[in-house]
Structure formats: structure tokens, C-alpha cells
Amino acid sequence: MKIAREGFPFAAAALLLAGIFWAGAWAGLGGLEGAGWWAIRLAAWTFTILSVFVLWFFRNPEPEVPSDVTLVVSPGQGKIIKVEEVDESSYLGGPARKISIFLSVFDVHVQRAPVSGTVEHKVYRPGAYAVAWADKASEDNEQASLGIVTDHGRILVRQIAGLVARRILTDPAEGDSVQRGHRFGLIRFGSRVDLFLPMHWEVLCSVGDRVRVGSTVLARQRADAT
Fold it and tell me: Which of 74, 191, 206, 215 is labelled catalytic?
């Protein structure tokens, strides 16, 4: 299993603390019994388990990207909590279909490009840290938006911080090319990803679906008949 590079400092810090406490336990610090004995070993086990959790949290599995290039894959991993029509004026400039994906702390937190294209729009906006599944999270929370132009229209991906998320990373710059299924960013510790699609594209998912980042099909690109 690949690990996202951003996880290594956290895992290293937890492993270092675990090593210090295990060394103290082996050296007999805290005595051989009593409260000190239990405290040293509890701390050692806590940081050992924490280091394993951190590595698991930052896992970065390779997606199974479908061969059909017209298919739009999920930019995040988690549960679809909303599919609706909205007005997206910041980049799409009008009506769009929005698919919202909630990422719990147990989901993969690497984001991958849903389509291949060129980055035309990149905006970061600081904000609040409300629960990511709330309707107001799309408006009020810290977020980063990435607009990508394709042969069949523009799409917008929005990374939204959650209650415990405190860092959004978005790799590409304006003008960069992105490939469907390739990593474009990461959100640390619980979050949400909103995907905005042109109205003429066919949505192939529903509220309640569990989706895998870079693999699960959410929609199909279609040429605008108008």
C-alpha cells in the first residue's frame, strides 16, 4: 500500500515518541509495578497504535481507472450525501449539477482528478470548520476550488475542510494538465469534496452510494447538443 508523502512526518513523530516510551519501559522507568509502570506502557502502546493509524489514514491506493475516457470518476472517497442542481457562478457561470461526497476519518483522503483536462481556475478561501456534511459547509468552511476545462465542457472540484480538518493541499497550478485518476490534492482528517458538472452531462450515481477515489464512475461526459 502506498502512503501519501504528507503522512510521513506525523508517523515519524508518533514512532519517535513510541520508541522513547518503550525505551523507558525497558530501562525500568516508572518501576516494575504501580501507576508509573502502567503510565509508561500505556503511553508506549498509545503512540505505537497512533503511528499505525496515521500510516493507514494517509494510505494512497492505486485506483482502477475505467478505460472509457468519457467517464467521470470520483474525486474523493466516501459517501455521496447530495446530488442537486445549483447555480455555480464562480467558474462554470451558471446552472450545474453538484455531487457532494463526505469523507470520514476512516476514508482515503487523497483526491484524484475526475477528468483529464487543463486547470483554468484555482482559488483557495479560508473559512470555518463546521461539520463537513452540513449544507452550510459548502459556503462557510475553508475550501480550495480547482476548475478544469475538457473537450466537452468545464468542471469544478471543491475540497472542503471539515470539523477536524486543518489543511487542504491542492497540487496543480493554473495552466497545468491533469490526467483522470491522478492525484491532485489531499485534505487532512475528515472533510468533503464537491464536484460541479455541466447540466448536459449524464449523472450515473445516487445519494447514499459509497464511492472509491479515482475508480467509481459518477457521470459521463457528453457533447453539448446546443
Answer: 191
CA–CA distance, 203 with 58 (Å, rounded to integer): 29
Cα 98–chain centre separation: 17
Nearest to 89, CA basis, from 76, 81, 98: 98
**pTM for the model:** 0.82
Residue 191 designated active-site: yes
* Phi, psi (rounded to 5 degrees) for 72: -100, 125
150: left (phi over 0), alpha (psi -120 to 50) or beta: beta
> pLDDT averaged over consecutive 10-residue blocks of the chain (226 residues)?
77 86 74 67 87 82 93 96 94 95 88 96 78 58 91 94 72 95 85 94 96 96 77
Distance CA 202, CA 172 (A): 27
Give domain 71-220's CATH superfamily.
Glucose Permease (Domain IIA) (2.70.70.10)
How far apart, in whole angstroms, are the C-alpha atoms of residue 128 and residue 135? 13
Nearest Cα neighbor of 197 from 121, 84, 79 is 84
**For the chain, which residues make up each domain, given as ranges?**
5-57, 71-220
Three-state SS for 120-165 is: EEEEEECCECCCCCCCCHHHHECEEEEEEEECCEEEEEEEEECCCC
The grid coordinates listed for 1 are 500500500
CB contact set of 179 (below 8 Å; sequence gap of 6+) = 113, 116
- The helix (run of H) or strand (run of E) holding residue 26 is helix 8-26
Q: How many CB atoms lie within 10 A of CB 173?
A: 8
